[in-house]
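[retry 2/3] Exodeoxyribonuclease X-like C-terminal domain-containing protein: previous attempt timed out, resubmitting with same input.
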Amino acid sequence: MANPRLPGISENEQALLYAKLNEYNRGRASFKEAGVYLVVTPRPGKPNYSLWLYSPLPEKQSILYIHDLSPDINESLRMASTLLYYSRRCLILVDYNEKRMQSNGDDLIFFGKYRGHFLHEILKIDPAYLSWIAYKFTPKIPKQERFVKIAQAYHSIHLDIMQRKSREKRSSSRYLGELGEKLTDLKLKVTRVRLEDDPYKTRVNGTTPQFFVKQMLTLTDASGNLVVMSIPSKNPSAVSCTLSGIEHEYRLGEIIYVASAKVSRRYESYGSKYTRLSHVKFARLNV
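[retry 2/3] Exodeoxyribonuclease X-like C-terminal domain-containing protein: success.
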């Protein structure tokens, strides 16, 4: 594949840029095996470079839009290479290809709370929901099977991005205590909320299902140490994975105060250390 001519820079600058890009790609996986990230040149009406993924995962191989970068090529490559530094995939420059890079609606969500949104939008705002589509949604027709494959490709982008974040946390993240130790007076910030049905409590009352939903929280303390805890609902909901209207629903960024808790588990994931708490007693809730 020929390197595209880059607007606004000299031939010497362009040669140096491609040499640096070749060095960045040294030792990374073949595009046939893992796919490849594309930095796409500007085009009429689109003055910014943009980031895409070529993925061999969908049955009809796809080029998937991720997001826009900068009008400046050096800044665009800095943004992309920093974000994806720990990925196995190469990063290359290409011109825009209208036939292959135009969405046919295969990546448009057709159900649920994000109906009418594109998968690349959900990648930014709710990667947990994207993961659910990729690995838990059951397709019923061939078009939906392709939709799921595209969701899996986008989920792989999220995993590449998370590699960088997890490695950055690796040096500073630590466990809060020993197994079985009682911790007191914790101030924690909510960084992730996932809703999950409790299979042991869910039941049918007459003909009405009753779901007891757990809030699975990931939190950080003032030093950036990672904590996880499960908050069970006291009241049933008629809808799966949806809290009853009278339950307190935790939000990203919310600060909670724990009077005491027990360290029930310690584990490491993607280089980050997590402390799981149980027997949690709250000192004060923000409501």
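[retry 2/3] Exodeoxyribonuclease X-like C-terminal domain-containing protein: DSSP finds seven helices and eleven strands in the chain.
[retry 2/3] clearing retry counter.
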